Amino acid sequence: MRLLVLLTAALFLIAVQAQAQVYAPYDGYDEYDGYGYDDPYSPYPPPYYEPDPGYQEPFPERRQPSTRVGRGTIVIATREHTLIYTTSAGEQFAYPIAVGREGKQWYGTTRVVSKRLHPEWRPTASMRQKNPRLPAVVEPGPANPLGTRAIYLADGLLRIHGTNDPSSIGTNASSGCFRMYREDVEELYDMVQPGTRVIVQR
Fold first, then answer.
1. Which of 189, 30, 151 is nearest to 99 (CA)?
2. Is residue 194 within 8 Å of 112, Cβ to Cβ?
3. Cα torsion angle, 29, 33, 35, 39, sign
4. What residues are annotated to the active site?
5. N or C: less crowded end of the chain, CB within 10 Å?
6. Mean pLDDT of 170-175
7. Is 75 within 8 Å of 197 (Cβ atoms)?
8. 149: phi then psi, degrees, rounded to nearest 5
């Protein structure tokens, strides 16, 4: 009987602790983005990604943007998995994207704070503490989950970036950041500058 009571109390404490564990929308700087699995605390490191030399990314599906915003503004329509950039001349570009998983999404107005060509990916200290086998740095290349370009938002806490997992585009896949096809993020990267207004909608 005492064992049953202790077991019930332990289960109750575990349930309460699980409910109390709340993560910020961009906890972990887009943990494990692009590695193709969803367990950020796995004891195993991300698998090595061997690119297929004959692989071609699917042609991005583009549609006519239907939003009206100020010029020189990025609008991210989370539910529609779409990023729309209106240039200072009024021309609009719409791109399919991957957005944050449930509980990892952020909404509001921010701005582009910086851009990085061929970014490194650095797991945070908390991520490496939970998984000591993670590398300190993932250099640019096919195994890098940020792809070839990164556009930093919200004082660097959120990013628009490429991906080494193009199959995730159009889904809720990240830990808060916004993934794009390689061709799309490279085009957007060339057009936007630090200071560009970004509106993230539901």
1. 30
2. yes
3. positive
4. 161, 177
5. N
6. 91
7. no
8. -140, 145
